Amino acid sequence: MAKANLMDYEKALELFEVVIGLEVHIELNTKTKMFCGCRNDFGDEPNTNVCPVCIGLPGSLPVVNKKAVESSISIGLALGCKIEANGGFSRKNYFYPDLAKNYQTSQFKDPIAYDGALEVEVPSGNKFTVQIERAHMEEDAGKLTHIGGATGRIQGAEYSLVDYNRAGVPLVEIVTRPIIGAGSEAPELAAAYVRLIREIAKALNVSEARMERGNVRCDANVSLRPIGQEKLGTRTETKNVNSLRSIERAVRYEIQRQAQILADGGSIIQETRHWHEDKGSTSSGRPKSDADDYRYFPEPDLVPVQPSTELIEKLRSELPENPADRRKRLAGEWGFAEMEFRDVVNAGLLDFIEEAVAEGAKPQAARKWYSGEIARIANSEDKDVAEMNITPKQVAELATLVESGKINDRIARDVLSAVLAGEGNPGEIVTSRNLEVVSDDGALIAAIDEALAKQPDVLEKIREGKLQAAGAVIGAVMQAMKGQADAARVRELVLERASRA
Amino acid sequence: MSEITPDLVRHLAGLARIDLTEDEVIRFTEQLSVIVDSVAKISNIIDADTPATSHPIPLTNVFREDVVLPSLTQEQALSGAPDQAQGRFRVSAILDEE
Amino acid sequence: MSELIKKTAAELVELMAKGEVSSVEVTQAHIDQINKVGDAVHSFLFTSPETALATAKEVDRRRAAGESLPTLAGLPIAVKDNLTTTDAPTTAGSKILEGWVAPYDATVVTKLRNELMPILGKTNLDEFAMGSSTEFSAFGPSKNPWDLTRIPGGSGGGSSSVVSSFQSPLAIGSDTGGSIRFPGAVTGTVGTKPTYGAVSRYGLIALASSLDQIGPVARNVLDAAYLQDVIAGHDPHDSTSLTQSLGSMVAAAKRGSLKGKKFGLIKQLSGAGFQQGVQNRFAEAIKIITDAGGEIVEVDCPSFDYAIDAYYLILPAEASSNLAKFDSVRFGMRVTPEGNPTIDKVMAATRELGFGPEVKRRIILGTYALSAGSFDKFYGAAQKVRTLIQRDFDNAFAKADILISPTAPTTAFKFGEKVADPLAMYLNDIATIPANLAGIPGMSVPIGLADEDNLPVGIQFLAPNYQDAKLYEVGAALEGILEGIWGKRMIDFAPNLEVK
Predict the structure, then answer these.
(1) Which residues, in sequence order, are bridge partners of residue A135?
(2) What is the DSSP code (8-state) at residue C22?
(3) Angstrom distance (rounded) from CA A246 to CA A371
(4) Residue C326 and residue C308: Cα distance in Å, rounded?
(5) Interchain CB contact of C382 with A (< 8 Å)
(6) What ipTM score was computed for the predicted complex, to two decimals?
(7) Of the given ranges (A47-51, A129-133, A407-411, C357-361), which has the lowest mean pLDDT?
(8) How many other C-beta atoms are found inside a 10 Å radius of the C-beta of residue C451?
(9) pTM of the model
(10) Which residue has the higher pLDDT, A400 or A285?
């Protein structure tokens, strides 16, 4: 695969206008699948949550999950959409071994929700309105495992194995209209949009909404057109973008790649592209072709869905606080400075901090741990915070240990590393490693005595007002105590000794 | 004059994943031409305003409660599989070797 | 030939209930007949005499113990081989499914088991029910017991020949465009396509989902009524299953009356194109109906002239999608070409060799009807024709209680006569197809033999949706009058099959 030439980002934006479009799939957290009573849980042993319907055996017939329809309507309402009064399902026909019936039961002309809009704020504080074209219900496919070949990838595999536990899991696909005018902030807007969709799905409690587990998946369409041109350029659709950071990076990459091709007089091929997290680049998938003739037609095995006004209004009345209101409320409750709060939102830490606070952490402490430490480590490891091996509950525990003086900040950072390394909960790690701060003054005084014996002139200097001289003793004591001492207490004791003598 | 050509039949067979022989392509082109010419006359009696009917009986809103029902065992699920491994259905490689 | 096998289902049920004959005796008598004529008629793709006898023994034991049993308990039955069964292979008449045993029973099969009916086996059909003659079965055609050189109708020629050759008193069929009614007409038997949704389709290997309906195949109207009452009813596994009860078909058949009813003679389905002998018998039936107090009115259904065309777009379109799952991954046949083929090539090779010519022809046609450039002109237009056909029915039923026509344009034709000409084959269904497009119930009842060839002719009754009972009421009445005139049952005109 030849490495693509990338145009400088700033230059690309001088020459071209960026148009993006986002398709986000949300996996619903219903108990059962979309069209059968199999458990909606695909971590189990392969092909155990399957039945004649979801493995597409001859003679089987689908029946729609009522809860999935209600969840879809709730999502639509939260996106400000209209709800289709007379919708239904269609078959999307194409052959692929993870698609049990070789058609996907989906919605085509009459999606459950349409014509919505969301206001999305990007890190700069700029706000954009994203138009939602539609949100429709469909079913997920099974899971393929590629065997043989170098890397478990589809390329070069000798054969593949299919597990249909995920086949038929309910999905809602949310499709935006083309988003024009975000300029250099298009990549940030894409990520902020998906973050907002996640927040909405979580707040509605219709999905686990975890990107790292594939509960939320994003396909990003990117096209460029020369500044001033009316007609939209040819777009590419980048699939497999499964973290917020990747969305931002993938969109930026496509802008730079396409700009260079267009500037060189080339043309963009309408195609599916795959995002490679490791390389930070996209590669060509298959071109769009006649094979994309999906031959949609109304699903004859399912009857129309006509949600009543009563149902829609009931679901509307049950909608949770919208994300903008929630942010306003949390900003007030937590008392963060405006910049602090915006950083938290932009780093996608709102949910984590909220959960940690709910688990007993002080808001500022939770913010400090997430912004200062966890996000920083995640960034250095090229990961999302969600992928880090620590729960908000563990963060709260860590903050509480510091708050109560059981450990100091430096020890706490070691404990954090241990938690991230999978050694257990903070309390357990403190106990098993015997990290608790030595608060026994006797032990500290003995160590101070020993240090003073080696540096007899220190007390005199302190008495002369050179308080910084205490530092040498404190350092020696901390070293002797292997860091497990409260430095502030040691300082107190040293100063006390000087004043006594 | 029919729009059915051997190339179209080959294309449709590709969409339908059927590896037709050339003899079949020729025969189906002839037969489908006759059929398509015949059925095309339905456009004579309809107009843009005629509503479409996809279901013979006008049922709506048939749903299932979100309640777990028994699944097949893995053995039952795989019982008809032409090939299997590790509790999964085994299939040939999806992509050609480059 | 055993006396038992000549009896009707209703008679056998009564004899068993009275204890005059056991279910084992009844079942064994039919197994003996299968052994005698089975090879010649080739009705069955699979027989299960042991399991049938085991069920029969169980019924006899429970009856002896004084248990209360379902109405048809102990009465043997045959099931069309496009319904899934856990204890017998299901092939749908296709090589692509040869040897497949489903891990679940069709709802109708479960109902038969709950009724304690011994299942004798699975009956032959055109591959995936695509055909009018069983000549498209991958396992060879079934024969018409009236003349073994002729077709028994299709697609349910296995079920029609099994009851008309006394191998089973009853059979299950499925009707997408006439696959119960046309075989009924050409074998002198009774077949009903109930209202769409009256019988669950769960476990029926779909041909065209919006047209398929399972129904009873029998030698007389009352027997068919007994079977429909057993298999009908709501099924939560089928989203298109009706929730309301359509009442008792047995009660309607026993009520049997033509008097005071208006019979609509469908202008588009009489006269031209129908064999003279068929027209003659149909005219006599009309006279009988009039004599019995029925009134004949003519109804005009102009869109029926386009029914076959719409049908041969909707059916292949739905079928092309329904049959996509036959891909060699989860079940059925797999053909792996030489070399290291990709899954696409394996699928294409499997489907090339696994499907027969008619199936492939219809898949290609259906793929075309749905494809981007031709959807509106073909599939979309056909759905509009469907609306027009429903409107024609609505108008007709505003004038008449029941509509009538000959069931089929001809009597049973000879093997090979139409197999190479798809359009000619499709015309067999000209009278039966409109009912499937509109969902309404229809029934074929024998009305005698054609003068030219001494082969059976059937009349088709059509009723408004949900009014299946009307079919049984008028069907039983006409049948009773005809039997009175003939002095015997229609099926007693059939030549004795004295084979080996």
Answers:
(1) A113, A174
(2) -
(3) 19
(4) 27
(5) no
(6) 0.96
(7) A407-411
(8) 13
(9) 0.88
(10) A400
Residue A68 sits at the chain B interface (C-beta within 8 Å):
yes
Contact residues on chain A for B14, CB-CB shorter than 8 A? 291
Whether A65 and B77 lie within 8 Å, measured CB to CB: no
At A500, phi and psi to the nearest 5?
-75, -40
Tokens 């054609």 belong to C450
Locate the domains of chain A by residue range.
9-314, 321-432, 441-500
Decide if pLDDT at B98 tops 60.
no
- B66:A164 CB<8 A: no
- The architecture (CATH level 2) of A441-500 comes to Orthogonal Bundle (1.10)
List C23, C155, C320, C405, catalytic entry: C155
- Alpha helix positions (H), A79-185: none
Considering only CB atoms, which chain C residues are within 8 Å of B95? 342
Three-state secondary structure call for residue B71: coil
Q: Which of A69, A97, A158 sits opposite B63 (nearest CB)?
A: A69
C179 is catalytic: yes
Helix (H), strand (E) counts: chain A: 17, 16
User: Is the CATH code 3.40.50.150 the one for domain C3-257+442-493?
Assistant: no
Cα separation, C41 vs C37, in Å, equals: 6
Q: Where are the domains of chain C?
A: 3-257+442-493
Q: Is the pLDDT of residue B5 over 90?
A: yes
Task: Classify residue A371 by its DSSP letter.
Answer: I
Q: Is C80 a catalytic residue?
A: yes
Residues C392-442: tens digit of each pLDDT: 999 999 999 999 999 999 999 999 998 888 888 888 899 999 999 999 999
Contact C326 A101 (CB under 8 A): no
Nearest CA to A35 among A301, A311, A306? A301
Measured between alpha carbons, how far is C193 from B31 in angstroms, rounded to an integer?
30
The residue of C368, C376, C387 whose CB has the most chain B CBs within 10 angstroms, and thus the best one to mutate to test that interface, is: C368
CA distances from C390 to A399, C333, C405 (A): 72, 40, 17
Judge: B15–A295 Cβ closer than 8 Å, yes or no.
Answer: yes
CA distance linking residue A438 with residue A443, whole number of Å? 8
**Residues B98, A159: C-beta atoms closer than 8 Å:** no
How many CA atoms lie within 13 Å of C203's alpha carbon, on the beta-carbon side?
A: 27
Neighbours of A62 (CB within 10 A): 23
Q: Is C200 a catalytic residue?
A: no
C274 CB within 8 Å of a chain A CB: no
Whether A108 contacts chain B with CB within 8 A? no
B chain contacts of residue C104, beta-carbon cutoff 8 Å: 72
**Chain B environment of A148 (Cβ under 8 Å):** 93
Q: What is the pLDDT of residue A1?
A: 46
Pairing status of strand C190-193 against strand C44-47? unpaired
Q: CB A336: neighbour CB atoms within 10 A?
A: 18
Beta-sheet strand order (sheet of A297-298): A103-106, A90-93, A297-298
How confident is the model over A266-313, as pLDDT tens digits?
A: 999 999 999 988 888 988 876 665 557 999 999 999 999 999 999 999
Helix (H, G, I), strand (E, B), or coil: what is residue C449?
A: strand
Q: Which chains lie within 8 Å of chain A at 3 or more CB pairs, if any?
A: B, C
Residue A166 sits at φ, ψ, to 5 deg, of -85, -15
DSSP state of C414: B
A to C CB pairs, distance under 8 Å:
102
Across the beta sheet with A143-147, the strand order is A143-147, A159-163, B88-92, B84-85
Q: What is the full DSSP assignment across C94-117?
A: -GGGTT---SS--HHHHHHHHTTP
| Both structure tokens of A496 | 């006390």
In this structure, the strands spanning B84-85 and A143-147 are unpaired
Nearest CA in chain B to A69: B63
Contact residues for C315 (Cβ-Cβ < 8 A; gap 6+): C176, C177, C207, C208, C211, C362, C366
With the C-alpha atoms ordered C135, C137, C141, C142, is the resulting torsion angle positive or negative? Answer: negative
